[in-house]
């Protein structure tokens, strides 16, 4: 049997009882794994760390957006973009506490679904418009929409909040 130079070099390390092999087999690579959609196989301390990380980033970006609130008159996206990013982090942080599967079931149930979809759509459109669309009036509209949908989303998360908010909206639309 002929050995190449690489095989000779690898065989020289046999004296150290070191074997070079792939750490997993083909069966391990293609094995079906169950994905934990609730906590993504994170421990409680990892989830708390992720929660506080999202909280800190959300607070920093919200503070930055409030520092730019006076500049929102000339350029609304200077306020709206960091505010939308902070809302995104605030939205995600509760998923680490409750579990994402449970949290998404909760926010997409019943009347909360409308407020959640409006909030997520407005947040996505604000971030998209901030990077790709240069329109003052669109940015102003999305800035106001972002504030309104965030407040509505937070109120809808409070027990009984979605019913009360829906009643107020129906009352205002009847007039």
Automatic annotation (TrEMBL):
Q: Where are the transmembrane segments?
A: 48-67, 79-103, 115-133, 139-158
Keyword presence, Transport: yes
* The entry's keywords: Golgi apparatus, Membrane, Protein transport, Transmembrane, Transmembrane helix, Transport
| A Gene Ontology cellular-component term | Golgi membrane
Q: Does the record carry Protein transport as a key word?
A: yes
The record's Pfam families line, in alphabetical order, gives: Got1
**Major location, coarse class?**
Golgi
A GO BP annotation: protein transport
Name the membrane topology term: Multi-pass membrane protein
Give the top-rank taxon of the lineage listed in the UniProt record for this protein: Eukaryota
Q: Where in the cell is it found?
A: Golgi apparatus membrane; Membrane
User: Which family, according to UniProt?
Assistant: Belongs to the SFT2 family.
The protein's role, per its UniProt record: Nonessential protein required for the fusion of transport vesicles derived from the endocytic pathway with the Golgi complex.
List the PANTHER family hit by this protein, alphabetically.
VESICLE TRANSPORT PROTEIN SFT2C, VESICLE TRANSPORT PROTEIN-RELATED
What protein name applies here? Protein transport protein SFT2
């Amino acid at each position: 049997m002929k050995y190449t130079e690489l095989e000779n070099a690898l065989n020289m390390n046999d004296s150290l009882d070191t074997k070079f092999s792939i750490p997993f087999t083909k069966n391990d690579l293609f094995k079906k794994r169950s994905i934990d959609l609730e906590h993504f196989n994170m421990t409680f301390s990892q989830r708390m760390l992720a929660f506080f990380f999202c909280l800190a980033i959300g607070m920093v970006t919200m503070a930055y957006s409030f520092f730019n609130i006076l500049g929102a008159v000339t350029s609304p996206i200077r306020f709206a973009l960091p505010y939308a990013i902070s809302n995104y982090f605030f939205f995600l942080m509760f998923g680490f506490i409750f579990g994402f599967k449970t949290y998404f079931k909760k926010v997409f149930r019943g009347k909360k679904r409308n407020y959640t979809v409006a909030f997520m759509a407005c947040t996505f459109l604000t971030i998209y418009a901030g990077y790709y669309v240069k329109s003052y009036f669109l940015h102003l509209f999305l800035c106001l929409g972002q504030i309104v949908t965030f407040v509505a989303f937070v109120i809808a998360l409070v027990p009984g909040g979605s019913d009360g908010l829906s009643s107020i909206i129906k009352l205002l639309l009847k007039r």
